[in-house]
Amino acid sequence: MLTILGKATSINVRKVLWTCDEIGIPFVREDWGAGFRTTDTAEFRALNPNAMVPVIRDGDFVLWESNTICRYLAGQHGRTNLLPAAPQARAQVEKWMDWQATELNNSWRYAFMSLVRQHPDYQDGERLAAGIAAWHHHIGILEQQLARTGAYAAGDSFTLADVVLGLSVHRWFMAPIPPTSRPVFPAVGAYYERLSERPAFMRHGRNGTP
Prior knowledge:
Strands 2-1-3-4 form a four-stranded mixed sheet, covered by helices on one side. The chain has eight helices and four strands, in the order βαβαββαααααα. 36% of the residues are buried. By secondary structure, it is of the alpha+beta class. The mean pLDDT is 97. The chain has helices at 11-23, 42-45, 66-76, 87-115, 125-149, 160-174, 186-195, 199-204; strands at residues 2-5, 27-30, 55-58, 61-64. The protein folds into two domains: 2-76, Glutaredoxin; 87-203, Up-down Bundle (Glutathione S-transferase Yfyf (Class Pi), Chain A, domain 2), CATH 1.20.1050. Helix 1 (11-23) crosses helix 6 (160-174) and helix 6 (160-174) packs across helix 7 (186-195). Residues 1-81 form the GST N-terminal domain. It holds the Pfam family GST_C_2.
């Protein structure tokens, strides 16, 4: 039985939960992270030296990094519809997954901590404005891609790229950004509704958690 370590409200844990749901993988989940069992212990660091969730245990195999976990699960279960076997098609999926983890995630960090978490260390007005602008800029990059494909991030079909990007899009829509400063991105809006037709996204993505 697959074990997932991490609280269900974590955006990175939800990537793994959504992937498991799409594939139909049975699992058990243990609550780790802020508000639950601390990851800052020797026990947890033995599993992930970064002391971050999620971590999975698949038998004797331990793995961390959420996007890598999603790729592993799709490969382990032969789901080439989610992660293609052909090198070029796979590269398109992985490109958008990596962009989500490196570029898009970094763009919204300050704004999210300020607006959603309301953390006192993230209340500088100029930095917040710059963070919101960077967030919008990166969602605009996704808007251009979705306008080209007319469907999903890597093309006509739903893939793992849409699992990770869908959760980021949901966070953007859920953030209390002033309406006057939120651009209208019609392709992203249509994409969000398209993803909402998937029961697994409604359970693990568009479920009220930013």
